[in-house]
Structures are given as C-alpha cells and as structure tokens.
Design goal:
By secondary structure, the protein is mostly beta strands. It has two helices and 18 strands. It has two domains: 120 residues, no CATH class; 122 residues, no CATH class. The protein is globular, with a radius of gyration of 18 Å. It starts with a strand and ends with a strand.
C-alpha cells in the first residue's frame, strides 16, 4: 500500500499552497505541489519555487496510507537552498486536524523545499525522531532506529553528528518528538528501557528528558517548551525495550 504526505502551507498574504506526494517510508522525502489537477495550482513544483517571495507563517502535514491507518508522521522540515534546515513543520496521521503557526516564519525562494519523514506503525523497532529549535535560530532534527534494550544515539539528519557536536554552544528552547511503536518506547516492563528520550552530559548527568508522541493522533504533534544549553560532549539517547 502506498503512503502519501499532504502539506498545507499558509502565507502572510493569506494565500495557500497544497503539497502532496507519495513518500518513501523511513527516509526524508521531498513533497511538491499536488499534481492531481483537483485544486487550482501548477503541480509537481518545489514549495519555494511555487511560492516565490512569500512568507510562510503556518503549516501542517498529514500522513495517510491507502485504505489503512498505518501511516505515521515522524518529522517535517523546510530545507534551505544550501541544504540546511530553516524551519520545522508539525504533523500527524490520517485522523489529524489543525494548522499550527510556525515558531519562526520562513521566506520562500527557488531551492527551498519541504521534506517529510514517515514510517509505518509497528510493534517492533521504530524510528525515534526529535525536531529542535535553538534560541539562535538554528534548527535541526535528530533521529535513530531503536534496538531492543540498547542505547541508540539520536543523530543530526543534517550532519550525522551527536547533539553535542551538531549544536555545541546552542541553547535549545523547544522540541517535538515522535516514536512509532504501537506500545510506546518502553513497552516491556521497567527493565532495559527508558520511556523517554534523554540528553546527558559527559559525566552522565541528565540535562533533559522528553516523552515521544505517537504521530497518528487527532492533533498535530505538539512542541514542548524546554530549555537547556548544549556543550560538546553531550549525548542524546533512545533506549527502547520491545515485547
């Protein structure tokens, strides 16, 4: 069964753009303007090119699987012309509604695109994902594939680096996080799993913990306001146990 992502973009001038494509599960996929001909817009064009000069102020992603409810939202980003992430978009599964305001508006131009990461709901190992805004304006997304009863580092999708390497000297101000396990991150008692993603310093001291949302709810995944400073040797960990 195919899985598709649809994205509503709203701009400061009141105009709307609608993106929709089939996506490759478990990898970030660009979603371009809907080419069905059912709405009055040119299709199969990158978001920035289709909306030149406009200021994006609100957006939402819906992940849907044909004739099923197994499609799950992980994360979505607005990617700049140099390949860096310049904005984050909230989303959820087929039952979701809402059009959240962006934490920071993003200017559209040729080369800017929208990428979506989706996966299928499952009871086994799943992708953990955390989207991060920093006080400086820096944006990143960290992901990792769970391994039962094992510490898995969440690494930057931009650089492949740890949080300490990718965000050294930054102050995180808000995040949203998802995990697609049917029974959650720690679903097999209290041994060998931690039911939240966690950030530690080099001495193993906890600096932050965050529960993961299940990206198929009726509301778009929510940002959690939390603040912590990042230094070079900090680590970001997913530890699942799976029944």
């Amino acid at each position: 069964m195919a899985t598709n992502a649809s994205v509503i973009l709203k701009f400061s001038d009141g105009t709307i753009s609608y993106l929709r494509n089939a996506v490759t599960l478990d990898t970030f996929t660009e979603v371009k303007t809907d080419a069905s001909g059912l709405v009055n817009q040119a299709g199969d064009i990158s978001a920035g090119q289709a909306n030149q000069g406009k200021l994006l102020i609100a957006a939402a992603v819906k992940v849907s699987t044909d004739d099923a409810t197994t499609g799950l939202f992980c994360a979505a980003s607005v990617v700049g012309v140099s390949g860096n992430i310049i904005g984050l978009i909230q989303g959820s599964g087929a039952a979701a509604s809402g059009l959240p305001m962006l934490k920071r508006p993003v200017r559209m131009m040729t080369g800017v695109k929208v990428n979506v990461l989706a996966q299928a709901i499952g009871t086994g190992v799943q992708i953990g994902s955390c989207a991060v805004y920093c006080a400086s304006g820096k944006v990143d997304i960290f992901t990792g594939v769970a391994i039962a009863s094992t510490d898995v580092p969440l690494l930057s999708v931009i650089s492949g680096s740890t949080i300490g390497e990718a965000l050294v000297g930054e102050r995180v101000i808000c995040t949203y996080q998802t995990y697609g396990g049917t029974n959650g991150v720690a679903s097999d008692g209290i041994a060998n799993g931690v039911n939240a993603f966690f950030v530690e310093d080099a001495q193993g001291q906890l600096k932050a913990m965050m529960y993961a949302e299940y990206g198929t709810g009726q509301e778009m995944v929510k940002f959690v306001d939390q603040q912590f400073n990042v230094v070079q040797n900090d680590t970001f960990t997913l530890r699942a146990n799976i029944n």
